[in-house]
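1st attempt posting a full record on here, be nice pls
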Amino acid sequence: MSHIKFSIFRKIAENYTIPEGSGILQEFLNALSDGTDVSDPFFSKALSRIRKEIGRELPSADDSHDPWEIYWDFFFPEAGLLKRNSDEIIREIRSNRIISISKLNSTPITDIPLEMTFTSNILLTVPDRNIPLENLDLPESVINAIPDIMKEKQLYWFDHPVQMGEVPEKNEIIYGLKGLSEALAFEKKRGTSRHDAKLDVLLSVSVTHKGLQEIAAPYISYELEKAGGFPDLNIYIFTEKDTKEILATYSRNSESISEFFGVDGKYGRHYNFLKSVNVLWKLAVNPSVKGTFKIDLDQVFPQEKLVKYTGKSAFEHFMTPLWGAEGSDAEGKSVSLSMIAGALVNEGDIAASLFTPDVSMPDRTAPASDLVFFKHLTMALSTRAEMMTRYGEKSGIDGKKQAISRIHVTGGTNGILVDALMKYRPFTPAFIGRAEDQAYLLSVLNSETSPLLRYVHEDGLIMRHDKHAFAGQSIEAAKDGTYIADILRLIYFSYYAQALPGGIDRTKKSTYPFTGSYISHYPVTLSYMRLIFKILEHLELGEKDRAENILELGKIRLGELLDKLDLENFPAGEFFREREQWNNFYDEIDKLFHEQKSKTPVSDRMVLLKERLKECKVN
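the predicted structure (as tokens):
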């Protein structure tokens, strides 16, 4: 590889002060420049991969060129969009997302409480270790169990989990359920819902420590009771223990399926559960259910604003015949709009307008890490082009004969029809720890099933995002871990795309610009450069501790991922293995549906399934 001149890396080493005690960064950048090796295993393993990824000469990095353009040209070519008119780019993205409607849904959802479920995930952890247990308002059974649980090894980490004992005004569980209850009360007053209606709310409970599985239900029940119980919501919670027992009631293949059907682990696992559980719900609990919609518990429907700006309440948005419509995309391929996606507005921005994008447009005064991965640009453009699309004269898309298909979606504010779950069987691979919502669509993006499954953009279906109003401290504390997780996402998405029909190039083109920016031919190169630039960024700000913490986290988590990539056929083999198991899951459910339709006597399996699902009700 001596013929490759990695002068761009030497330029980085020359332009930044490497932290004292972290000379390995300097050594690594120099090694990239001249083909030598390094002693540190974390960086030496990366060298071999980077040299395999890059088989051509990189651009030279002399002083006569704009350093932004030098770095962006190789690391993040999407940043070239900054040179173009943003309105022109937005029109271009929308034109690629237009669906020409051939058939509206002739039987759209009309009775939301009867025909829909709402789902969300509770992320639960032990109490704040700095607060004596006797000072916490918790049931005695929970307090007695906590000391032993706190001695357990922590298994999973989340962005801002609910700490047991949090005061109600800081508790996401109560906050989100209160918002949903108030949304239903608004609908009843508006006349769009029956006065005696209740919503079925299905909540997965993902815990940081295994012992929390046993006390999650009594803890949540206690908090609900303190908050008034929410009598207009039928609240069900599902722990990992529950999901295993649910499978055991009906499945002949429960042991292998339970590896993927559950709620603990990385974000993709509970996301899959919150979708797939709805086919069990339709089968055993409510045969009238047609669709499900996922929210995050730090989000609420701003009903009055929705009506003011869109003329529709939240429930009226769900009644759109676009959800379940059919048509053709910009390439002439048949699509089914059986998924639906809304958008978000930050709590601090809604006073200006419901349609205030939750991501601001960046400029060149961005941090150093944006020199190699300028995601804020593609996120901002994608947010405006997809999430903020208004149907009507201004966009030229009427929302009747034409609609927008969404690629960029958020973990909350999206839904799917239950029949589509059975037909298309989408899933997020269990190794995905970030952007599980976008990975879900990738599993069927270019599938052989026709028409292709797509999200329809529902203009004005917007939830207010309030996380910074009460979770700011936890979010700040998790920043370094979140940044490392975003780096891992880049590698996982790039390797994931290799396993999909059309590979990296086709998948990247289909998901342009934001999701596609995480799909690269050089994911390890780019990931290590992101890590190094983030360290340099903190050093420039005098934040040595943050720099050292990020390097240490990177060595642990990125190092573990590189070890996995050394395994044969990872992660492609894992993806296909999971697809087989999800097919087994849906095949088994399909047989039970046929058994049900044949009017044969109800089997013991069906009785047990219904009973076990209903046992998960907590209020």
